[in-house]
TrEMBL record:
The chain crosses the membrane at residues 17-38, 144-166, 178-198, 210-230, 305-324, 350-373, 393-411, 417-437. Pfam families: Na_Ala_symp. It is a multi-pass membrane protein. One of its GO terms (molecular function) is amino acid:sodium symporter activity. This is Amino-acid carrier protein AlsT. It is found in: Cell membrane. NCBIfam families: agcS. InterPro entries: Na/Ala_symport. The gene is alsT_1. It comes from Blautia luti. Its main location: membrane.
């Protein structure tokens, strides 16, 4: 029975992540890059804005707080285990497609965040609400599609945002620190409860401190490992570029599986990692204090830059160089990304396991916090404020039990839910592209200009 269910889920995954989804996602990235006049060229300005406070603007949290909350959910196990899975199943060429998804995905993240801020609303108690569901409802009069997005988003939070993350923490702590998985689940659940019951401000305060530390620690660690593997960096880059398009074999047992497999797993893991096009991060962007939609959209776009263009690329290079340098890693018998990542990092004495353990714990826990907020906003959209307490209790319960259950199919289900969230969100981005272009032209050369359009107050 379990095998039959697994087979059906795998078939659904193959269907939703077929050529049509790759074309829709990557096509939207490229289309919106063109329509925004290659907004990626503003990444330097966007990074500067991300650390600039805009306290006189309307919103719940700072621009940096909104960004780090979004980064908390996007910089997760997908950056470590997800990249390993892409390499194990799609070959080293998947790293290039994952990276390209990030480069072009900057434009989509900009666009989805812009409409999230433009169409956001405020509750009577002063909380900002926004995201694809409000853009669909208020921008396109398609509340029914907004409800579909919120439904999938609420369910996705339990898988991609909670179960897979807590299980990764429990696994790495059990294998490396010999701490019982059940104890880890309880500890994570308690720490999560202490934060999420404080709302977006509490989550943002924690993320503002945790995200910069974890990203800096991980990137420095990867740079040191690449220094150790320096003689394999150029061969690894060549292998990644070559096997993104052709099948074949390389040093260390690496196998290129052809363009379709490389694209499928590279783009799927790219979306899982940076969430560009999925519509999750704009939910946090909508809460930001910002003078106009373009300003916060630029800040939000830096999330994809840091997440995929920097962190995922470094993880991919660390894995490929380590595999090529250490023939003892038997790629012929590895299909699990977590196993591949663990073996690769273990090749580096002392430093490798430390980076892996600290990286997974901090990345995964921050994702648990970020997705708790996303899930809350989705649940509140279709059930009202009364659904928040039951959701939080269930979220904490999932965090508690997911440390001790098998999650072999959860990653596949997460991929499916990612795609099902992305579809209505991409529809909103594409149908509102004229609005995005108009707003961009209005503010891009005067980012300090204030949008005085009153934010609608809703009865929730």
């Amino acid at each position: 029975m379990i095998n039959a269910i697994g087979s059906v889920i795998n078939q659904i995954d193959s269907l939703v992540w077929g050529w049509w989804m790759i074309i829709l996602l990557l096509g939207t990235h490229i289309f919106m890059t063109i329509r925004t006049g290659v907004i990626q060229r503003k990444i330097g300005t966007a990074i500067r804005l991300s650390v600039t406070k805009d306290t006189n603007a309307e919103g719940e949290v700072s621009q940096f707080g909104a960004l780090t909350t979004a980064l908390a959910s996007t910089i997760g196990t997908g950056n470590i285990i997800g990249v390993g899975t892409a390499i194990a199943l799609g070959g080293p060429g998947a790293v290039l497609w994952c990276w390209l998804t990030g480069v072009f995905g900057i434009a989509t993240k900009y666009c989805e965040s812009l409409i999230a801020v433009k169409y956001r609303v405020k509750t009577k108690d002063g909380r900002m609400q926004g995201g694809a569901m409000y853009a669909l409802e208020r921008g396109l009069n398609m509340r029914w599609l907004g409800l579909i997005f919120a439904f999938f988003g609420g369910f996705a939070s339990f898988g991609i945002g909670c179960a897979t993350q807590v299980n990764a923490i429990a696994t790495v702590c059990n294998e490396n620190l010999h701490i019982p998985s059940a104890a880890i689940g309880i500890a994570v659940a308690v720490l999560t409860a202490l934060v999420i019951f404080g709302g977006i401000k509490s989550i943002a305060n924690v993320c503002e401190r945790l995200v910069p530390f974890m990203a800096f620690f991980y990137v420095i660690g990867c740079i040191i490992i690449l220094g150790i593997n320096f003689d394999f960096i150029i061969p690894a880059v060549k292998t990644i570029c070559k096997f993104a398009f052709t099948p074949g074999a390389a040093a260390g047992g690496l196998v290129g599986r052809g363009i379709m497999m490389a694209m499928q797993y590279g783009i799927a893991r790219g979306l899982f990692s940076n969430e560009s096009g999925m519509g999750s991060a704009p939910i946090a962007a909508a809460a930001a204090q910002t003078r106009n939609p373009v300003r916060q959209a630029l800040v939000s776009s830096t999330g994809t830059f840091w997440d995929t263009v920097v962190v995922c690329l470094m993880t991919g290079l660390v894995l490929v160089t380590s595999i090529m340098k250490n023939p003892s890693i038997d790629m012929g018998n590895i299909t699990d990304g977590g196993v591949l990542t663990t073996l690769a990092f273990q090749q580096i004495p002392v430093l490798g396991p430390v980076i892996l353990v600290v990286g997974i714990i901090s990345f995964a826990y921050s994702t648990v916090l970020g997705w708790a907020y996303y899930g809350e906003r989705c649940v509140e959209y279709f059930s009202g404020k009364k659904g928040l307490i039951p959701y939080r209790v269930l979220y904490i319960a999932v965090a508690t039990i997911s440390s001790v259950i098998s999650l072999n199919l959860v990653w596949t289900v997460a991929d499916i839910l990612n795609a099902l969230m992305a579809i209505p969100n991409l529809i909103a981005v594409l149908l509102l592209s004229n609005v995005i272009v108009k707003e961009t032209k209005k503010y891009i050369n005067d980012l300090d200009a204030r949008d005085d359009t009153p934010v609608e107050v809703i009865d929730k």
